[in-house]
Amino acid sequence: MTIIFSGMEAPEAAVHARILVTIMNYLAETQQEFRWEISMGPVEIKKNVYWVGAMDWNIRDFHGYSTPKGSTYNAYLVVDEKIALFDTVKKPFKNDLIGRISMIIDPGRIDYLVVNHVEMDHSGAVPDIVELVGPEKVVCSPMGKKALMDHYNRADWPYHVVETGQTLKLGKKTVSFLETRMVHWPDSMMSYIPEDKLLLSSDGFGQHWATSERFDDEVDASELFNHAAKYYANILLLYSPLIQKLIAKIVDMGIDIDMIAPDHGLIWRKDPGAIIKAYQKWSRQESGRKALVVYDTMWQATEKMACAVGEGLKEGGLDFKMFNLKFNHRSDIMTEVLDSKALVLGSATINNGMMPAMADLLSYMKGLRPAGKVGAAFGSYGWSGEAVKLISEAMRDMNINLVGDGVRVKYSPKKGDLDRCVELGRQVARAALLEQ
């Protein structure tokens, strides 16, 4: 295997070659495949602070959340008198991480490994990095140490446990730690470098979006915030009360931030305040004059009812969006739920129950705990007709304010049935606007 370091002077190339040989030997010993995206090197985001993470262009599902444009696993290297690596990457991408670090320093020079979050997309490479680097300290929160022990069963690592307000001196730079329990794991914490006004925000303020660009001002702002909203709606929504407290704590601490570097997606450098304001709004679950009509249908009878419900919503003063579950992913619908006031859900009855895709959506939505919604149910049936009742019960369990008992139609809806659906839409619109 021959690798040419183009554009380098001979001494510099020799140093890089020696580092590469070290890495190759390590990989051979651990019998791991070597993959290194040499098309993208590290990116300096602040002076002597580098993005050294990995791109996952191909991931399409993240715990049931669709990721049609991939994701990134961001890690950051701070070079000072003491060198610190903040988080790692998903295990299959560990060699991308090692390769990018090696373009800056010999990985063996890393003194501290800071584990802001133990979830496997960020800690998967921790055992390999600890073995390769032999860090002086593995820095984590109290719950982080417990989680690392539970995941990797390594009591021999040099753990250094930190709590909110504690600091770690690197040289010219200082790291201050902020525990963010249940945003979104018990171990989660953020790291702040005051000299750079840089917040390394772990899973906060992220997006699942793989791009060759690294900063918010290099991409379309509308698309960026759509990805950020989807991330919030599908990962963080249920922790909204805690996020409100976290943002208030950051304000109270007087933390001056001019860059936010999350563990997924783009880095916020142009206007980090914009994503903080978005989180404040999303965490309050503020809704617009918007409704969703979401349904699954067997022979288009429930679909006809959905169209009639939409007509009533519009007549009642609410804009609406309509989603057939055969063609729309649950996580995209949850993104729309984020700023919707009303949810009208419909399903045909099958085997004395609702359509499987509707049951899936309701189960997924219940776990994310949307708040402050009004709703109703509708659907067609052949002989038993349980779907509307079951949907209504599921919505009631989510504390959605139900409007009426829903509309059930046997087989195909007639004009009178569709009129009832239009009226249901009007009633839902009135209830939604009254609550606003």
Defining traits:
436 residues; alpha/beta; Metallo-beta-lactamase, Chain A; Rossmann fold; seven-stranded mixed sheet; 13 helices
Helix content: 25-40%
How many helical elements?
13
CATH class of the largest domain: Alpha Beta
Question: What is the fourth-level CATH superfamily of the largest domain?
Answer: Ribonuclease Z/Hydroxyacylglutathione hydrolase-like
Number of domains: 3
Describe this structure in words.
The structure is a single chain. The chain is α/β, with parallel strands linked by helices and 436 residues long. The protein folds into three domains: 34 residues, no CATH class; 249 residues, Metallo-beta-lactamase, Chain A (4-Layer Sandwich); 146 residues, Flavodoxin domain (Rossmann fold, 3-Layer(aba) Sandwich), CATH 3.40.50. The strands form six sheets. A seven-stranded mixed beta sheet has the order 1-2-7-8-9-10-11. The N terminus is likely disordered.
Brief summary:
The protein has 436 residues and is α/β, with parallel strands linked by helices.
How would you summarize the topology of this molecule?
Blueprint (H helix, E strand, L loop, with lengths): L9 H20 L13 E4 L2 E3 L2 E3 L4 E2 L2 E2 L4 E3 L2 E3 L5 E3 L7 H9 L9 E3 L5 H4 L2 H8 L3 E4 L1 H11 L6 E3 L5 E3 L4 E6 L9 E5 L4 E3 L20 H16 L3 H13 L6 E3 L10 H12 L6 E7 L4 H15 L3 E6 L5 H8 L4 E6 L1 E2 L2 E2 L1 H13 L5 E8 L5 H11 L3 E2 L4 E4 L4 H21 L1
Parallel strand pairs: 8-9, 9-10, 10-11, 15-16, 17-18, 17-19, 19-22, 22-23, 22-24
Antiparallel strand pairs: 1-2, 2-7, 3-6, 4-5, 7-8, 12-13, 13-14, 14-15, 20-21
Helix pairs in contact: 6-8, 6-10, 7-8, 9-13, 11-12
